[in-house]
Amino acid sequence: MPKSFEDKSKTVLTTFESCNRDQQNEILIRLLLKCQPLQLRFLYAELKPLLAVDFVAYLPRELTERIFYYLSPSDLCKIACCNKLWRERSNHDPIWQNLCISKGWSSYGSDLMIERPFSPNAGTTATSPRYIAPDTPSNLTPVCKWKDVYMRAHHLDNNWITGKYTVIPVLKGHKEQVTALDSNHKVIVSGSADGTVRVWDIFTYQCLHIFQDHTDSVTCLQIKDNIVVSGCADSILRVYDVKTGRLLDTLMGHNRGVDSVCFDGKTIVSASSDKTIRVWLYHSGKCVHILRGHQDDIEFLTMYKNMAVSTSWDSTLKLWHLRRGICVHTLQGHSEVVYCCQFDDNIIVSGGGDGLIKIWDTESGYCRQTLAGHTGEVYCLQYNSEVIASGSSDSTVRLWNLQGICLNVMREHIGVVRCLCIWGPRIITGGDRKKIVVWDAKTGRKLNVAHRNPSLLHKLWVNDTRLITASPESPGSITVLSYW
């Protein structure tokens, strides 16, 4: 009677076990040589899981974490799903902190951990910006701090890209148009043609103080820490403490209305319709310099370290040394009024009514580049270490590199582009026809459009989580979009 398969296999295994290791190896080689290709493939598939080695279990923890250090966030999330040990090794603060730094999110280590959404009890919808932290099973260690920061920051970044925000109830109270707007990330400060300055809590959006000492329209203001300096059409600057609501100082000296003010915490610089710029010491209230030179009204004033640049309807820019009280350079090149400007130690970038943008050398005053392309007045511009963004009455936003090459012409606005802001990887622009547009700062690609404003928009303030706008229409109102 022939033997069954079980008997045959038992005989083979018994014979195999009775041999020594060398003999067993020889038997295996002979068996493999007798196998067909499909049988070898089947054998490989069966052996592969048995030969796999979990290197994380054998390598020192420090070496494993160093390997994980080179992985992308998506790869780290995938390996965290492999098993408990891999999750623990990838759940390591230095790994995720480095990823946050590479994204420019290191400042979120404290900000997003304490900030709460405007309606924390509200449910989430497809357009809700609210972040809900994932639950961690009780048998696993909690998500490390910097991984949590990364997840929150990624969620916030995605809200900006996809246009997920909450519209805060409109801040009302001014009887006339809002003429000035600023924030220190804790409060919003607004000035109005009704002669008042209002201070709003940026988290609760309640009006904390109303400053009513002005005798005419408030034309400009700037806040630093808890101190706000306001300029008025009555020619007087006033200094307030937004925490206590007290008037700290009154600065008198201009002969006509104050049009622009800059404040860095130590020095106050003001420009007036009397065509002068005054430099004041904050702590004493003393005017230390009166700067003269413009032949027409001063349009714009900006400050950087111990320097200031003023632009004028006389088509020039002037670079001033504030400590010495002298004009360092008079920059001539525009053929019409210069509306906007930004500068640092190396360059001065200006935009004018002639539709041109000019890049000047700060040290020499020499015009390095003239950027032509806009067909209307350039009302706003801003630059960072890589690009210059400009907005114009021709309804376009243009993106340039610092060598003066136009990278993109961004078309979405209808009417004048009145204000813009480069914030991290995004450009936010505002103008007529209820449009706020969010763009990618590197490519100029349109990310989304928000239609949440009155027909005109002339003031814009942006931080990581909020977009704050004001309209020149009466009565004055302030709109806040929260992306968190």
Automatic annotation (TrEMBL):
Q: Where are WD repeat segments found?
A: 171-210, 211-250, 251-290, 291-330, 331-370, 371-403
Judging by the UniProt lineage, the source's domain of life is Eukaryota
- Which Pfam families does this entry report, sorted A to Z? F-box-like (PF12937), WD40 (PF00400)
Ranges for domain F-box come to 53-99
Which keywords does UniProt give here?
Repeat, WD repeat
Recorded source organism is Saccoglossus kowalevskii
Write down what this protein is called: F-box/WD repeat-containing protein 7-like
